[in-house]
Protein backbone atom coordinates (compact mmCIF):
# COMPACT_ATOMS: atom_id res chain seq x y z
CA UNK A 1 0.00 0.00 0.00
CA UNK A 2 1.17 3.51 -0.78
CA UNK A 3 0.52 6.67 1.25
CA UNK A 4 1.13 10.17 -0.10
CA UNK A 5 1.12 12.89 2.54
CA UNK A 6 0.74 16.57 1.62
CA UNK A 7 1.96 18.91 4.33
CA UNK A 8 3.69 22.21 5.07
CA UNK A 9 5.88 20.40 7.64
CA UNK A 10 7.38 17.32 5.98
CA UNK A 11 10.10 17.04 8.64
CA UNK A 12 7.47 16.13 11.28
CA UNK A 13 6.98 12.71 9.69
CA UNK A 14 10.53 11.32 9.67
CA UNK A 15 10.65 10.02 13.24
CA UNK A 16 7.23 8.43 13.77
CA UNK A 17 7.01 6.86 10.30
CA UNK A 18 10.67 5.84 10.11
CA UNK A 19 10.87 3.97 13.42
CA UNK A 20 9.72 0.68 14.89
CA UNK A 21 7.16 -1.50 13.09
CA UNK A 22 6.25 1.08 10.44
CA UNK A 23 9.91 1.85 9.63
CA UNK A 24 10.66 -1.88 9.32
CA UNK A 25 7.62 -2.49 7.15
CA UNK A 26 8.75 0.31 4.83
CA UNK A 27 12.27 -1.17 4.61
CA UNK A 28 10.72 -4.52 3.76
CA UNK A 29 8.58 -2.92 1.02
CA UNK A 30 5.26 -3.83 2.64
CA UNK A 31 4.22 -0.22 2.50
CA UNK A 32 5.60 3.02 1.09
CA UNK A 33 5.14 6.57 2.31
CA UNK A 34 5.96 9.69 0.31
CA UNK A 35 5.83 13.09 2.00
CA UNK A 36 5.26 16.12 -0.22
CA UNK A 37 5.81 19.77 0.72
CA UNK A 38 2.80 21.89 -0.27
CA UNK A 39 5.12 24.92 -0.43
CA UNK A 40 6.89 23.36 -3.42
CA UNK A 41 3.71 24.07 -5.41
CA UNK A 42 3.71 27.81 -4.64
CA UNK A 43 5.02 29.58 -7.72
CA UNK A 44 5.61 33.17 -6.58
CA UNK A 45 8.96 34.53 -5.47
CA UNK A 46 8.10 34.21 -1.76
CA UNK A 47 6.44 30.80 -2.17
CA UNK A 48 3.22 32.03 -0.52
CA UNK A 49 0.78 29.29 0.47
CA UNK A 50 -1.92 31.28 2.27
CA UNK A 51 -3.93 34.48 2.09
CA UNK A 52 -6.41 36.46 4.22
CA UNK A 53 -10.03 35.24 4.41
CA UNK A 54 -12.71 36.91 2.29
CA UNK A 55 -15.11 38.65 4.66
CA UNK A 56 -12.32 39.40 7.09
CA UNK A 57 -11.58 37.89 10.46
CA UNK A 58 -8.72 36.16 12.20
CA UNK A 59 -6.26 33.76 10.65
CA UNK A 60 -5.28 32.89 7.13
CA UNK A 61 -6.60 30.42 4.56
CA UNK A 62 -4.60 27.99 2.43
CA UNK A 63 -4.81 29.11 -1.18
CA UNK A 64 -6.83 26.89 -3.53
CA UNK A 65 -4.47 27.30 -6.51
CA UNK A 66 -1.45 26.06 -4.54
CA UNK A 67 -3.32 23.20 -2.90
CA UNK A 68 -4.92 21.96 -6.10
CA UNK A 69 -1.61 22.15 -7.97
CA UNK A 70 -0.11 19.95 -5.24
CA UNK A 71 -3.04 17.50 -5.16
CA UNK A 72 -3.12 17.09 -8.94
CA UNK A 73 0.65 16.67 -9.22
CA UNK A 74 0.69 13.96 -6.55
CA UNK A 75 -2.47 12.16 -7.70
CA UNK A 76 -1.50 12.11 -11.37
CA UNK A 77 -3.86 9.79 -13.21
CA UNK A 78 -4.52 7.56 -10.17
CA UNK A 79 -7.94 7.27 -8.55
CA UNK A 80 -6.54 7.37 -5.00
CA UNK A 81 -8.91 9.17 -2.62
CA UNK A 82 -7.82 12.48 -1.09
CA UNK A 83 -8.39 12.42 2.68
CA UNK A 84 -8.39 15.70 4.60
CA UNK A 85 -7.65 15.46 8.33
CA UNK A 86 -9.92 17.84 10.21
CA UNK A 87 -11.97 18.06 13.42
CA UNK A 88 -15.02 18.38 11.15
CA UNK A 89 -14.53 14.94 9.60
CA UNK A 90 -16.13 11.59 10.25
CA UNK A 91 -14.57 10.08 13.38
CA UNK A 92 -11.89 7.54 12.45
CA UNK A 93 -12.20 4.07 13.99
CA UNK A 94 -10.97 0.48 13.53
CA UNK A 95 -13.64 -0.26 10.93
CA UNK A 96 -12.52 2.69 8.79
CA UNK A 97 -8.88 1.63 9.24
CA UNK A 98 -9.78 -1.81 7.86
CA UNK A 99 -11.61 -0.20 4.94
CA UNK A 100 -8.60 1.97 4.05
CA UNK A 101 -6.27 -1.05 4.35
CA UNK A 102 -8.06 -2.59 1.35
CA UNK A 103 -7.05 0.32 -0.92
CA UNK A 104 -3.78 0.32 -2.91
CA UNK A 105 -3.16 4.02 -2.34
CA UNK A 106 -4.47 7.00 -0.36
CA UNK A 107 -3.49 10.68 -0.33
CA UNK A 108 -3.55 12.37 3.08
CA UNK A 109 -3.87 16.16 3.19
CA UNK A 110 -2.67 17.74 6.44
CA UNK A 111 -3.42 21.41 6.95
CA UNK A 112 -1.56 23.38 9.58
CA UNK A 113 -3.16 25.98 11.86
CA UNK A 114 -5.22 27.60 9.09
CA UNK A 115 -8.21 26.21 7.22
CA UNK A 116 -8.23 25.28 3.53
CA UNK A 117 -10.34 27.15 0.97
CA UNK A 118 -13.85 25.62 1.02
CA UNK A 119 -13.80 24.98 -2.75
CA UNK A 120 -10.91 22.54 -2.32
CA UNK A 121 -12.81 20.71 0.42
CA UNK A 122 -15.92 20.43 -1.74
CA UNK A 123 -14.36 19.50 -5.08
CA UNK A 124 -10.99 17.81 -4.41
CA UNK A 125 -11.39 16.16 -1.01
CA UNK A 126 -13.03 12.73 -1.10
CA UNK A 127 -13.15 11.97 2.63
CA UNK A 128 -12.75 14.17 5.66
CA UNK A 129 -11.57 12.31 8.78
CA UNK A 130 -11.19 13.31 12.43
CA UNK A 131 -9.21 11.19 14.90
CA UNK A 132 -11.25 12.50 17.84
CA UNK A 133 -13.09 15.47 19.27
CA UNK A 134 -10.25 17.85 20.01
CA UNK A 135 -8.48 20.56 18.03
CA UNK A 136 -4.78 20.35 17.25
CA UNK A 137 -2.40 22.76 15.54
CA UNK A 138 -2.53 20.74 12.34
CA UNK A 139 -3.48 17.51 10.59
CA UNK A 140 0.06 16.05 10.66
CA UNK A 141 -0.28 14.00 13.85
CA UNK A 142 -3.72 12.71 12.76
CA UNK A 143 -2.22 11.72 9.37
CA UNK A 144 0.43 9.70 11.20
CA UNK A 145 -2.24 8.10 13.38
CA UNK A 146 -4.14 7.02 10.26
CA UNK A 147 -0.98 5.60 8.61
CA UNK A 148 -0.11 3.69 11.80
CA UNK A 149 -3.60 2.23 12.30
CA UNK A 150 -3.87 1.17 8.65
CA UNK A 151 -0.29 -0.07 8.21
CA UNK A 152 -0.48 -2.56 11.07
CA UNK A 153 -3.41 -4.25 9.31
CA UNK A 154 -1.43 -4.86 6.10
CA UNK A 155 -0.31 -8.46 5.56
CA UNK A 156 3.10 -9.16 7.10
CA UNK A 157 3.53 -5.84 8.93
CA UNK A 158 3.04 -7.18 12.44
CA UNK A 159 5.20 -10.17 11.53
CA UNK A 160 3.32 -12.40 13.91
CA UNK A 161 0.13 -13.36 12.08
CA UNK A 162 -1.43 -14.60 15.32
CA UNK A 163 -1.52 -11.14 16.91
CA UNK A 164 -4.18 -10.04 14.47
CA UNK A 165 -6.03 -13.34 14.76
CA UNK A 166 -6.03 -12.98 18.53
CA UNK A 167 -7.34 -9.46 18.10
CA UNK A 168 -10.18 -10.52 15.82
CA UNK A 169 -11.20 -13.11 18.46
CA UNK A 170 -12.28 -10.13 20.53
CA UNK A 171 -12.93 -7.66 17.78
CA UNK A 172 -14.82 -4.69 19.17
CA UNK A 173 -14.06 -5.52 22.82
CA UNK A 174 -11.39 -4.05 25.05
CA UNK A 175 -8.34 -6.26 25.69
CA UNK A 176 -8.26 -8.82 28.49
CA UNK A 177 -5.66 -8.25 31.28
CA UNK A 178 -2.16 -9.68 30.84
CA UNK A 179 0.33 -10.88 33.45
CA UNK A 180 3.92 -12.06 33.37
CA UNK A 181 6.38 -13.50 35.92
CA UNK A 182 6.63 -13.52 38.88
CA UNK A 183 3.42 -15.35 39.84
CA UNK A 184 3.35 -13.33 43.08
CA UNK A 185 4.63 -9.75 43.06
CA UNK A 186 4.52 -7.78 46.35
CA UNK A 187 1.79 -10.08 47.63
CA UNK A 188 -0.22 -9.64 44.42
CA UNK A 189 -0.98 -12.98 42.80
CA UNK A 190 -1.68 -13.70 39.14
CA UNK A 191 -5.19 -15.18 38.68
CA UNK A 192 -4.93 -18.92 39.37
CA UNK A 193 -6.57 -20.04 36.13
CA UNK A 194 -3.74 -18.55 34.03
CA UNK A 195 -1.22 -20.87 35.75
CA UNK A 196 -3.46 -23.92 35.40
CA UNK A 197 -2.69 -24.89 31.80
CA UNK A 198 -6.43 -25.43 31.14
CA UNK A 199 -6.70 -23.79 27.75
CA UNK A 200 -10.50 -23.81 27.60
CA UNK A 201 -10.80 -22.24 31.07
CA UNK A 202 -8.17 -19.65 30.14
CA UNK A 203 -10.05 -18.77 26.97
CA UNK A 204 -13.30 -18.29 28.92
CA UNK A 205 -11.55 -16.27 31.65
CA UNK A 206 -10.06 -13.93 29.05
CA UNK A 207 -13.34 -13.53 27.23
CA UNK A 208 -15.09 -12.75 30.52
CA UNK A 209 -12.48 -10.16 31.54
CA UNK A 210 -12.59 -8.55 28.07
CA UNK A 211 -16.37 -8.32 28.38
CA UNK A 212 -16.08 -6.99 31.96
CA UNK A 213 -13.75 -4.18 30.91
CA UNK A 214 -15.92 -3.31 27.97
CA UNK A 215 -19.09 -3.29 30.11
CA UNK A 216 -17.51 -1.10 32.79
CA UNK A 217 -15.48 1.26 30.62
CA UNK A 218 -17.09 1.33 27.18
CA UNK A 219 -20.68 0.04 27.28
CA UNK A 220 -21.25 1.93 24.00
CA UNK A 221 -19.02 -0.66 22.26
CA UNK A 222 -21.27 -3.50 23.44
CA UNK A 223 -24.32 -1.85 21.95
CA UNK A 224 -22.56 -1.63 18.56
CA UNK A 225 -21.51 -5.28 18.50
CA UNK A 226 -23.26 -8.60 17.87
CA UNK A 227 -22.78 -11.01 20.78
CA UNK A 228 -22.48 -14.80 20.55
CA UNK A 229 -24.59 -17.03 22.82
CA UNK A 230 -21.56 -17.60 25.07
CA UNK A 231 -20.83 -13.88 25.25
CA UNK A 232 -24.43 -13.10 26.18
CA UNK A 233 -24.31 -15.73 28.94
CA UNK A 234 -21.07 -14.27 30.34
CA UNK A 235 -22.47 -10.75 30.11
CA UNK A 236 -25.47 -11.84 32.21
CA UNK A 237 -23.05 -13.11 34.89
CA UNK A 238 -21.20 -9.80 34.81
CA UNK A 239 -24.36 -7.72 35.06
CA UNK A 240 -25.29 -9.75 38.19
CA UNK A 241 -21.78 -9.35 39.64
CA UNK A 242 -21.77 -5.61 39.12
CA UNK A 243 -25.52 -4.93 39.50
CA UNK A 244 -25.41 -3.06 36.23
CA UNK A 245 -28.83 -3.89 34.90
CA UNK A 246 -30.46 -0.90 33.34
CA UNK A 247 -27.83 1.49 34.63
CA UNK A 248 -24.58 0.75 32.89
CA UNK A 249 -23.41 4.21 33.81
CA UNK A 250 -24.53 4.04 37.42
CA UNK A 251 -22.74 3.20 40.66
CA UNK A 252 -20.68 0.02 40.53
CA UNK A 253 -20.86 0.07 36.78
CA UNK A 254 -18.07 2.44 35.97
CA UNK A 255 -14.38 2.23 35.36
CA UNK A 256 -12.45 1.82 38.66
CA UNK A 257 -15.54 0.73 40.64
C1 LIG B 1 -7.66 27.65 12.67
C2 LIG B 1 -8.24 28.90 12.76
C3 LIG B 1 -7.70 30.18 12.83
C4 LIG B 1 -8.57 31.25 12.92
C5 LIG B 1 -9.93 31.07 12.90
C6 LIG B 1 -10.46 29.78 12.83
C7 LIG B 1 -9.59 28.70 12.75
N1 LIG B 1 -9.84 27.41 12.68
C8 LIG B 1 -8.69 26.78 12.59
C9 LIG B 1 -8.61 25.35 12.45
O1 LIG B 1 -9.55 24.63 12.75
N2 LIG B 1 -7.47 24.87 11.97
C10 LIG B 1 -7.32 23.47 11.68
C11 LIG B 1 -5.98 23.00 12.18
C12 LIG B 1 -7.40 23.32 10.17
C13 LIG B 1 -7.15 21.88 9.77
C14 LIG B 1 -5.84 21.39 10.31
N3 LIG B 1 -5.85 21.63 11.74
C15 LIG B 1 -6.28 20.66 12.57
C16 LIG B 1 -6.60 19.34 12.25
N4 LIG B 1 -6.48 20.81 13.87
N5 LIG B 1 -6.95 19.67 14.40
C17 LIG B 1 -7.03 18.76 13.44
C18 LIG B 1 -7.53 17.43 13.62
C19 LIG B 1 -7.60 16.57 12.55
C20 LIG B 1 -8.11 15.30 12.76
N6 LIG B 1 -8.55 14.92 13.97
C21 LIG B 1 -8.47 15.75 15.02
C22 LIG B 1 -7.99 17.02 14.87
Explain the layout of strands and helices.
Layout: E1 2-7, H1 14-18, H2 20-27, E2 32-37, E3 50-51, E4 61-62, H3 64-75, E5 82-91, H4 94-101, E6 105-109, E7 115-116, H5 118-123, E8 127-130, H6 140-151, H7 161-169, E9 184-185, E10 188-189, H8 199-217, H9 219-224, H10 229-242
Parallel strand pairs: 1-2, 1-6, 4-7, 5-6, 5-8
Antiparallel strand pairs: 3-4, 9-10
Helix pairs in contact: 4-6, 8-10
This protein binds ligand 9WO.
How would you portray this structure in words?
It is built from ten helices and ten strands. It has 257 residues and is α/β, with parallel strands linked by helices. It folds into two domains: 2-151, SPOUT methyltransferase, trefoil knot domain (Alpha/beta knot, 3-Layer(aba) Sandwich), CATH 3.40.1280.10; 166-257, tRNA(m1g37)methyltransferase, domain 2 (Trp Operon Repressor, Chain A), CATH 1.10.1270.20. The strands form three sheets. It has a five-stranded parallel beta sheet with strand order 2-1-6-5-8. A three-stranded mixed beta sheet has the order 3-4-7. A two-stranded antiparallel sheet has the order 9-10. A hairpin with a 2-residue loop joins strand 9 (184-185) and strand 10. Helix 4 crosses helix 6 and helix 8 packs across helix 10 (229-242). The mean pLDDT is 93. The site of ligand 9WO has 17 residues, from strand 5.
Jot down its keywords.
binds ligand 9WO; 257 residues; 10 helices; 3-stranded mixed β-sheet; 16% strand; single chain; 5-stranded parallel β-sheet; alpha/beta; Trp Operon Repressor, Chain A; 39% helix; Alpha/beta knot
Amino acid sequence: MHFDILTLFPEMFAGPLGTSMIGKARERGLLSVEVWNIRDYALDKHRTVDDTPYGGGAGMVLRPDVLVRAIEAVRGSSSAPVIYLSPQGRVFNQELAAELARLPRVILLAGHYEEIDERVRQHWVDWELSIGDYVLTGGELPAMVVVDAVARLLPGVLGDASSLEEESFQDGLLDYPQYTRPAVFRDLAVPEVLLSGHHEQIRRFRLKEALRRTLLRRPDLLRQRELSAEEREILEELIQEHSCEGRVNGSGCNQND
